[in-house]
């Protein structure tokens, strides 16, 4: 099996690669836990080859399109940000020097915004996939460690906003005093819904947080209920602060299936409207769009 | 030097003790880093004796009044919470059994509130000190890891609210992605003031957080500016959510001097009015009030 090109989504904690046909179908998939966070710049090439070598042929140079934190300042080689408004995949990909002559690596730049200051790296590729897939304007929300809310007009990212909701949930449930009250297993749908409503109504989840600890001490609030309520409070608060973006339009959600489902549920609770898109499909379509940008260039 | 009684403020991470005269003057002070968090229940007595033994006399039993996390479920012996509305120091102190006949230990109960669910442990003693000191109704704010906002009417705690502002600041600046952008040294007054205004106006600091990281990447926002802005955003957001409490009255601040000063500055920025009280003086006056409660009982 010899792919026409290879797409790579290289994040902080892991890397995923797809062997792609000329008509952009995924022929094979491979993954590694060697994320950007664990690699020094000179270790990226070996980490890549270890994953994709079965797909390489001597005497042939295969184009590799990579997106994500691989292009961060702490990554393989920095791919600068394209300032908004911008098409999601700018032509200014960078090409780190490689020793293995079977590969030519191109790293997709991120996107930045001057005011309010914001950056994304990796999401721009999924957004390119969304545009290729739906050919329409809209609001895309990419829930995750750092959720992105992205406004797309005429195929360009015109503005975007980042919420640290996922990271806050993780910090609060594993490092704060709430860790004693929040389990990592189990779930309670009703508590999630109540949390969403409360966090949304107050437009701020913070005043409610310590109440989870107090309820656990005073009334034995169960850890799964506390967990679902904490998640709901944080997502409800996020939806309140981004209400202008989604109030009058359908939100396209691109993220891990479980988390996207929670955002869809939360949006329905507060009067929003959402569709959940397949995140891997958006990533592949975005990498294919980046491949097309590259072919136009070379 | 033989004290009439001994007051102890025993928190999660350290313990402080004062040798007190019969007229409630502090004759001597001692401290230890053996906080509740590092002690099993059977280790509290030895930890206490190690600090206060110079003040004890054979053949005499000295009364010890202790407040704080020493009375938590994970502490020496649980002192149950008094439900609001309540005088700050309820008479229901508990007395853990001790082997050393030179001491009799009494632990002050915390205070709890049913709705919204909330708890305090330690702050009730400072509030008792405030009431003894000022003999008036009012709003007391005790900034810290878990800030308390307390409404006092006729010498009783009628309601209170906890914000996890201090813990959030610590988690965000040392464990989140913002740790790369926030220093632990240095400060920028202007950035603090701007943060307070922004967090207060938005009534929610969360949408601003990632902007600190982005500004650091895009425009080289200095780590001390980011730190002061983060602190301002969180305190400004807290003041917004507790505005009903302080809008029409002077707030009495009881906490670490630097932090109380920041809260006073922030309150002034958003149109509030505050006095900063000496936290140690409030603790001692509160322990003396607890001693008086105990004497009435025994």
UniProtKB/TrEMBL annotation, chains A, B:
Keywords: Kinase, Transferase. InterPro entries: ATPase_NBD, DGOK, DGOK_C, DGOK_N. This is 2-dehydro-3-deoxygalactonokinase. GO terms for molecular function: 2-dehydro-3-deoxygalactonokinase activity. Pfam families: DGOK. It comes from the Bacteria. GO terms for biological process: D-galactonate catabolic process. Coiled coil: none annotated. Gene3D superfamilies: 2-keto-3-deoxy-galactonokinase, C-terminal domain (3.30.420.310), 2-keto-3-deoxy-galactonokinase, substrate binding domain (3.30.420.300).
């Amino acid at each position: 099996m010899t792919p026409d090109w290879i797409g790579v989504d290289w994040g902080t904690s892991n890397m995923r690669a797809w062997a792609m046909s000329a008509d952009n179908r995924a022929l094979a998939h491979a993954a590694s836990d060697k994320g950007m966070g664990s690699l020094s710049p000179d270790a990226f090439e070996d980490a890549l080859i270890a994953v994709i070598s079965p797909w390489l042929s001597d005497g042939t140079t295969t184009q590799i399109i990579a997106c994500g934190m691989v292009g961060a300042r702490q990554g393989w080689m920095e791919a600068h940000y394209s300032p908004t408004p911008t098409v999601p995949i700018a032509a200014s990909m960078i090409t780190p020097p490689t020793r293995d002559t079977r590969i030519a690596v191109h790293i997709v730049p991120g996107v930045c915004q001057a005011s309010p200051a914001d950056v994304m790296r990796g999401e721009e590729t999924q957004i390119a996939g969304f545009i290729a897939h739906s050919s329409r304007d809209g609001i895309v929300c990419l829930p995750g460690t750092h959720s992105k809310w992205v406004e797309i007009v005429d195929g360009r990212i015109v503005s975007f906003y980042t919420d640290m909701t996922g990271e806050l949930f993780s910090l609060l449930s594993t490092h704060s005093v709430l860790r004693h009250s929040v389990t990592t297993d189990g779930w309670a749908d009703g508590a999630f819904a109540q949390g969403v409503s409360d966090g949304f109504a107050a437009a701020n989840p913070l005043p409610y947080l310590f109440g989870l600890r107090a309820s656990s001490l005073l009334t034995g609030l169960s850890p799964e209920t506390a967990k679902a309520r904490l998640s709901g409070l944080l997502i409800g608060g996020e939806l309140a602060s981004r209400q202008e973006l989604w109030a009058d339009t359908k939100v396209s959600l691109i993220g891990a299936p479980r988390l996207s489902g929670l955002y869809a549920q939360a949006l329905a609770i507060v009067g929003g409207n959402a569709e959940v898109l397949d995140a891997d499909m958006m990533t592949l379509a975005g990498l294919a769009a980046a491949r097309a940008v590259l072919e136009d260039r070379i």
